[in-house]
Amino acid sequence: MIRTAAFAGVLVLWGLVAYGNRALALMNPVLLPTPGEVVAVAAPQIRDGSLARHLAVSSLRIVEGFGLAAAAALGLGLLVAVWVPARLALEPMIEFVRPIPPLAFLPMFLVWFGLGETSKVAFIAYTTFFPMFVGISASLSRVDVMLLRAAASLGASRRELLGRVVLPAALPSIVLALRLGFGLAIFVIVGAEFMGADAGLGNLIMEGRVFFNPAQIVMGALLLGVLGSLANGLLLAAERRALKWRALP
Questions:
Q1: CB 169 within 8 A of CB 147
Q2: Are 203 and 150 in contact (CB under 8 A)?
Q3: What is the pLDDT, as a whole number, of residue 67?
Q4: pLDDT digit string, tens, across residues 89-136
Q5: Most distant pair of Cα atoms in the chain: their distance
Q6: Which fold has domain 37-242?
Q7: What was the pLDDT predicted at 186?
Q8: CB 121 within 8 A of CB 146
Q9: Cβ contacts of 17 within 8 Å, gap of 6 or more
């Protein structure tokens, strides 16, 4: 209830600021679209199905790229948590590559994989892998030793320690890393679709910039926010279901 009220409050504030600016002309009204103008831009695209197409294309690219990165981050994060040689070998390389801005490699992804879907999915996967790997490996490596000792004293095998102690204890932090990774995937989809894309929300935003249509830019940004909120809610629901024995807020 509180979250819904807060969201509604933000929309009301946006309307007050935008319509107030239009009435007082504090700045060029074209630069600050009103909710009505955004709806007016969205309505014909909803009717002809183009908006649904843009949304579906971007969603598929995000899910594919995020899914590849999440699988790699979970697998390698688990490997470095349980096998010290792997951690010593992988962490220096990852820490060397991780600080490099991903957008610096975007032209190379287009050269390596072409202008099709592969380059966009690979770019999203590359960008989201590093923060998820760091978060997942850290959460798996920092499980309370007392929990491990208690389970071992009760006769738990190495596999049981991993499946019944380490993973459940680290799951909240793993979900947090996945939430951050998905948010980053939405962030970079715009850059990925700026180049060599004929559909997608990033392409829609780029088109709004080229033809100077701020209402369309805002519409695309809002839809990205909706995607992020839905994914965040699904991940939190999965966490609650997996940890229903805990009292989660």
A1: yes
A2: no
A3: 92
A4: 888 888 888 888 877 777 788 788 877 788 888 889 998 999 899 888
A5: 74
A6: MetI-like fold (1.10.3720)
A7: 86
A8: no
A9: 32
User: Do residues 173 and 139 lie in contact, with contact meaning Cβ atoms separated by under 8 Å?
Assistant: yes
Look up the pTM and report it. 0.80
Query: Based on the number of CB atoms within 10 Å of its own CB, is 144 exposed (0-12), middle (13-18) or buried (19 or more)?
Result: exposed
Token digits for 155? 């006769």
pLDDT of residue 248: 45
Q: By the 8 A CB rule, do 215 and 33 touch?
A: yes
Residue stretches of the chain with pLDDT short of 50: 248-249
Dist. CA 67–CA 57, nearest whole Å: 15
CA distance 129 to 131: 6
Residue 119 tokens, joined:
């380059």
